[in-house]
Protein backbone atom coordinates (compact mmCIF):
# COMPACT_ATOMS: atom_id res chain seq x y z
CA UNK A 1 0.00 0.00 0.00
CA UNK A 2 2.90 2.32 0.78
CA UNK A 3 4.38 1.66 -2.67
CA UNK A 4 1.10 2.55 -4.41
CA UNK A 5 0.76 5.77 -2.44
CA UNK A 6 4.31 6.91 -3.09
CA UNK A 7 4.09 6.04 -6.78
CA UNK A 8 0.82 7.95 -7.07
CA UNK A 9 2.44 11.00 -5.49
CA UNK A 10 5.45 10.60 -7.80
CA UNK A 11 3.20 10.46 -10.88
CA UNK A 12 1.25 13.53 -9.77
CA UNK A 13 4.40 15.53 -8.96
CA UNK A 14 5.87 14.55 -12.32
CA UNK A 15 2.85 15.81 -14.23
CA UNK A 16 2.62 19.01 -12.21
CA UNK A 17 6.27 19.65 -13.11
CA UNK A 18 5.64 18.78 -16.76
CA UNK A 19 2.74 21.20 -16.90
CA UNK A 20 4.31 24.07 -14.96
CA UNK A 21 8.11 24.00 -14.84
CA UNK A 22 9.25 22.09 -17.91
CA UNK A 23 7.67 24.47 -20.48
CA UNK A 24 9.97 27.16 -19.04
CA UNK A 25 12.98 24.85 -19.45
CA UNK A 26 12.30 24.19 -23.13
CA UNK A 27 15.34 24.09 -25.39
CA UNK A 28 14.69 24.71 -29.07
CA UNK A 29 10.98 24.46 -28.27
CA UNK A 30 11.33 20.91 -26.93
CA UNK A 31 10.70 19.75 -23.37
CA UNK A 32 11.96 16.51 -21.81
CA UNK A 33 9.57 13.61 -21.34
CA UNK A 34 10.19 12.72 -17.72
CA UNK A 35 7.21 10.37 -17.69
CA UNK A 36 8.90 7.91 -20.05
CA UNK A 37 12.01 7.97 -17.87
CA UNK A 38 9.95 7.12 -14.79
CA UNK A 39 8.25 4.22 -16.59
CA UNK A 40 11.55 2.82 -17.88
CA UNK A 41 13.23 3.23 -14.49
CA UNK A 42 10.42 1.57 -12.60
CA UNK A 43 10.22 -1.27 -15.11
CA UNK A 44 13.97 -1.93 -14.83
CA UNK A 45 13.76 -1.90 -11.04
CA UNK A 46 10.54 -3.91 -10.57
CA UNK A 47 10.09 -6.08 -13.66
CA UNK A 48 7.68 -6.46 -16.53
CA UNK A 49 4.29 -6.79 -14.81
CA UNK A 50 4.75 -3.92 -12.36
CA UNK A 51 6.46 -1.86 -15.06
CA UNK A 52 3.54 -2.41 -17.42
CA UNK A 53 0.97 -1.47 -14.79
CA UNK A 54 2.94 1.63 -13.79
CA UNK A 55 3.36 2.58 -17.45
CA UNK A 56 -0.38 2.18 -18.00
CA UNK A 57 -1.22 4.62 -15.21
CA UNK A 58 1.45 7.12 -16.27
CA UNK A 59 0.10 6.94 -19.83
CA UNK A 60 -3.47 7.28 -18.60
CA UNK A 61 -2.46 10.46 -16.79
CA UNK A 62 -0.93 11.74 -20.05
CA UNK A 63 -4.19 10.91 -21.84
CA UNK A 64 -6.22 12.77 -19.25
CA UNK A 65 -3.93 15.80 -19.34
CA UNK A 66 -4.01 16.37 -23.06
CA UNK A 67 -4.28 13.29 -25.19
CA UNK A 68 -6.62 13.32 -28.13
CA UNK A 69 -7.82 9.80 -27.46
CA UNK A 70 -8.14 8.24 -24.02
CA UNK A 71 -6.03 5.09 -23.96
CA UNK A 72 -3.40 5.88 -26.59
CA UNK A 73 -0.66 6.92 -24.17
CA UNK A 74 -1.88 4.36 -21.63
CA UNK A 75 -1.29 1.60 -24.17
CA UNK A 76 2.11 3.02 -25.13
CA UNK A 77 3.05 3.33 -21.45
CA UNK A 78 2.02 -0.26 -20.78
CA UNK A 79 4.02 -1.55 -23.74
CA UNK A 80 7.10 0.46 -22.75
CA UNK A 81 6.88 -0.64 -19.10
CA UNK A 82 6.36 -4.28 -19.98
CA UNK A 83 9.04 -4.35 -22.70
CA UNK A 84 11.64 -2.57 -20.55
CA UNK A 85 10.97 -4.73 -17.52
CA UNK A 86 11.18 -8.06 -19.33
CA UNK A 87 14.91 -8.32 -20.14
CA UNK A 88 16.23 -6.75 -16.91
CA UNK A 89 15.16 -9.25 -14.24
CA UNK A 90 18.76 -10.15 -13.36
CA UNK A 91 20.17 -6.72 -14.13
CA UNK A 92 22.49 -5.09 -11.57
CA UNK A 93 20.17 -2.31 -10.34
CA UNK A 94 22.99 0.04 -9.24
CA UNK A 95 24.27 0.42 -12.81
CA UNK A 96 23.12 3.86 -13.98
CA UNK A 97 24.46 3.68 -17.52
CA UNK A 98 22.17 1.01 -18.92
CA UNK A 99 19.01 3.00 -18.13
CA UNK A 100 20.59 5.97 -19.93
CA UNK A 101 21.02 3.95 -23.12
CA UNK A 102 17.61 2.29 -22.75
CA UNK A 103 16.02 5.75 -22.44
CA UNK A 104 17.76 6.89 -25.64
CA UNK A 105 16.49 3.91 -27.62
CA UNK A 106 13.00 3.77 -26.16
CA UNK A 107 12.47 7.53 -26.33
CA UNK A 108 13.43 7.53 -30.01
CA UNK A 109 11.08 4.65 -30.83
CA UNK A 110 8.34 6.18 -28.64
CA UNK A 111 8.55 9.48 -30.52
CA UNK A 112 8.53 7.64 -33.86
CA UNK A 113 5.35 5.78 -32.86
CA UNK A 114 3.74 9.07 -31.86
CA UNK A 115 4.77 10.60 -35.19
CA UNK A 116 3.43 7.71 -37.24
CA UNK A 117 0.18 7.33 -35.31
CA UNK A 118 -0.73 10.98 -34.86
CA UNK A 119 1.21 13.52 -36.90
CA UNK A 120 1.55 11.54 -40.12
CA UNK A 121 -2.09 10.43 -40.21
CA UNK A 122 -3.34 13.95 -39.58
CA UNK A 123 -1.63 15.28 -42.68
CA UNK A 124 1.54 15.97 -40.77
CA UNK A 125 4.87 17.46 -41.56
CA UNK A 126 7.78 16.19 -43.57
CA UNK A 127 9.35 13.25 -41.74
CA UNK A 128 12.92 14.51 -41.84
CA UNK A 129 11.84 17.93 -40.59
CA UNK A 130 9.96 16.34 -37.69
CA UNK A 131 12.91 14.04 -36.99
CA UNK A 132 15.37 16.94 -36.91
CA UNK A 133 13.18 19.43 -35.02
CA UNK A 134 11.22 17.25 -32.58
CA UNK A 135 12.31 13.62 -32.29
CA UNK A 136 16.10 13.93 -32.01
CA UNK A 137 16.16 16.99 -29.71
CA UNK A 138 13.52 15.50 -27.42
CA UNK A 139 15.37 12.19 -27.30
CA UNK A 140 18.62 13.93 -26.35
CA UNK A 141 16.93 16.20 -23.81
CA UNK A 142 15.06 13.28 -22.24
CA UNK A 143 18.24 11.19 -22.08
CA UNK A 144 20.00 14.03 -20.26
CA UNK A 145 17.57 13.55 -17.37
CA UNK A 146 17.73 9.75 -17.40
CA UNK A 147 20.50 9.25 -14.85
CA UNK A 148 19.19 11.67 -12.18
CA UNK A 149 15.62 10.38 -12.47
CA UNK A 150 16.77 6.76 -12.42
CA UNK A 151 18.81 7.55 -9.30
CA UNK A 152 15.68 9.04 -7.71
CA UNK A 153 13.58 6.00 -8.63
CA UNK A 154 16.32 3.66 -7.38
CA UNK A 155 16.45 5.54 -4.06
CA UNK A 156 12.66 5.53 -3.63
CA UNK A 157 12.45 1.84 -4.56
CA UNK A 158 15.22 0.85 -2.14
CA UNK A 159 13.57 2.77 0.72
CA UNK A 160 10.19 1.18 0.01
CA UNK A 161 11.76 -2.28 -0.06
CA UNK A 162 13.40 -1.62 3.32
CA UNK A 163 10.14 -0.35 4.83
CA UNK A 164 8.14 -3.26 3.46
CA UNK A 165 10.65 -5.91 4.39
CA UNK A 166 8.90 -8.64 6.37
CA UNK A 167 9.95 -8.78 9.98
CA UNK A 168 10.92 -12.22 11.21
CA UNK A 169 9.04 -13.03 14.37
CA UNK A 170 10.96 -14.85 17.04
Q: Can you offer a commentary on this structure?
A:
The chain is mostly helical. The chain contains seven helices and no strands. It has helices at residues 2-20, 34-46, 48-66, 72-85, 97-119, 127-144, 146-163. The model has no long low-confidence stretch (mean pLDDT 88).
Please write the string of helix (H) and strand (E) elements.
Answer: HHHHHHH
Which of globular, elongated, flat, extended, rod-shaped describes the shape?
Answer: globular
Radius of gyration, CA atoms, in whole angstroms: 17 Å
Arithmetic mean pLDDT: 88
Proportion of residues in β-strands: under 5%
Range of helix content: over 70%
What is the number of strand segments? 0
Helical stretch tally: 7
Structural class based on helices, strands and sheet pairing = mainly alpha
Summarize this structure as a short list of keywords or feature phrases.
globular; single chain; 73% helix; 7 helices; 170 residues; mainly alpha
Q: What's a quick, concise take on this entry?
A:
Helix content is about 75%, strand content about 0%. The longest helix has 23 residues.
Layout: helices, strands, pairs:
Elements: H1 2-20, H2 34-46, H3 48-66, H4 72-85, H5 97-119, H6 127-144, H7 146-163
Helix pairs in contact: 2-3, 2-4, 2-5, 2-7, 3-4, 5-6
Amino acid sequence: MLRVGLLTVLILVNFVLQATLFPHLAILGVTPDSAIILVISYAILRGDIEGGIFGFFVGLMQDLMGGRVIGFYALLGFIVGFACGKPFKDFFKDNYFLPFFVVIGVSFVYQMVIYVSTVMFLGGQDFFFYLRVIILPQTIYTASLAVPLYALMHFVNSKIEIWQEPVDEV
